[in-house]
């Protein structure tokens, strides 16, 4: 039998936004507002993301669906690509993500998909700064301090050398 390796991640939890800093509350609020504006006529699953950049700018995004699946795009990447296009020298210090269905926010936190995790990892590596991620649900907020916590066995530029 071979060697077993166990991977552990630290996930903080907050019961409600008021347990977080004022800045974190602001970013969650922006993500919630973005979710309400999502274009999701097919899945009815509205996702919002908000990024606080190192420059202090707040950038939001939401999922954009298309009848020709999979031509839509996730909220996290919409926000990140908008930030990269408009603020190319600013890294992401904080990301909040949330989702709603039937005009109600989900009870439990929603997590970035694999493609979003990989794209966020690229940004984290590019700016050499961890991204704190707040995943909001009505029952609790889960928090990780780096994309690497959500994608521990990741692929990056080091494999291409």
Task: Summarize the topology.
Layout: E1 12-14, H1 22-36, E2 46-53, E3 58-62, H2 75-86, E4 92-101, E5 104-105, H3 114-127, E6 132-136, E7 141-144, H4 147-150
Parallel strand pairs: 4-6
Antiparallel strand pairs: 1-7, 2-3, 2-4, 4-5, 6-7
Protein traits:
single chain; 161 residues; 4 helices; globular
Mind explaining what this structure looks like?
The protein is an alpha+beta fold and 161 residues long. It has one domain (12-149): 3-Layer(aba) Sandwich (Cytidine Deaminase, domain 2), CATH 3.40.140.10. It has four helices and seven strands; from the N terminus they run βαββαββαββα. Strands 1, 2, 3, 4, 5, 6 and 7 form a seven-stranded mixed sheet that branches.
Low-confidence stretches: none
Number of helices: 4
CATH topology: Cytidine Deaminase, domain 2
Pattern of helices and strands: EHEEHEEHEEH
CATH architecture: 3-Layer(aba) Sandwich
Distance between the termini: 32 Å
Q: What is the CATH superfamily label?
A: Cytidine Deaminase, domain 2
Strand % is: 15-25%
* Mean of residue pLDDT values: 96
- Domain count: 1
Structural class: alpha+beta
Oligomer: single chain
What does the radius of gyration come to?
16 Å
Shape summary: globular
Helix content: 25-40%
Query: Mind telling me the CATH class?
Result: Alpha Beta
Q: Describe the biggest sheet?
A: 7 strands, mixed
Number of strands: 7
């Amino acid at each position: 039998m071979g060697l077993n390796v166990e991977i552990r991640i630290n996930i903080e939890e907050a019961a409600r936004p008021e347990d977080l800093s004022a800045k974190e509350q602001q970013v969650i609020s922006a993500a919630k507002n973005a979710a309400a504006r999502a274009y999701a006529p097919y899945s009815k699953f509205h996702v919002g993301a908000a990024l606080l950049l190192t420059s202090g700018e707040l950038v939001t995004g939401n999922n954009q669906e298309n009848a020709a699946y999979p031509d839509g795009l996730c909220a996290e990447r919409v926000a990140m690509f908008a930030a990269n296009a408009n603020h190319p020298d600013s890294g992401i210090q904080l990301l909040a993500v949330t989702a709603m269905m039937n005009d109600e926010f989900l009870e439990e936190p929603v997590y970035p998909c694999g493609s979003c995790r990989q794209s966020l990892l690229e940004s984290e590596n590019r700016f050499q700064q961890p991204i704190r991620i707040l995943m909001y649900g009505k029952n609790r907020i889960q928090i990780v301090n780096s994309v690497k916590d959500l994608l521990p066995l990741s692929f990056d530029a080091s494999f291409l050398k």
